[in-house]
Amino acid sequence: MNTNALVTPSPTSAKYWSVLKDLSNSVKLELITLLSNSVANSVSGASNEKGWTKSFAGRWEDDRTAEEVIEDIRNSRNANIKMVWKSRTGFRGN
User: Fold this and answer.
1) Block means of pLDDT (10 residues each) for the chain, length 94 residues?
2) Among positive and negative, which fits the CA dihedral 58, 59, 62, 66?
3) Longest Cα–Cα distance in the chain
4) Which end of the chain has the least Cβ crowding within 10 Å, N or C?
5) pTM
6) How far apart (Å, rounded) are the C-alpha atoms in residues 69 and 71?
């Protein structure tokens, strides 16, 4: 069986293959299953990264009401960027 027909192994995988190639087929299949599960778990873990904010639900602790928090946020805002508007006629104002 030509093992190089499908993949050109990296140096790391070539080292592993030199150790694993003489194992029985049943052990190789077992290793394939373990590796496949490992990859599947890491892929499903990546999809969970989208919902990482859910772990913060219900964690906010504050004596202020929601309205007070909103008011504090709005009052702390500042417009430190000077905006320049340009109309179609070329008028510039701020």
Assistant:
1) 66 90 92 87 64 76 89 79 60 51
2) negative
3) 80
4) N
5) 0.40
6) 5
**Burial (CB count <10 Å: 0-12, 13-18, 19+), residue 92:** exposed
Q: Which two tokens stand for residue 39?
A: 């990859």
Amino acid of residue 78 = N
Q: What are phi and psi of 92, to 5 degrees?
A: -120, 135
Beta bridge pairs of residue 93: 85
HEC string of the chain equals CCCCCCCCCCHHHHHHHHHHCCCCHHHHHHHHHHHHHHHHHHHHHHHHHHHHHHHHCCCCCCCCCHHHHHHHHHHHCCCCCCCCEECCCCCEEC
Tokens of 65: 């009401």
Angle at 31 between CA 27 and CA 33, to 5 degrees: 115
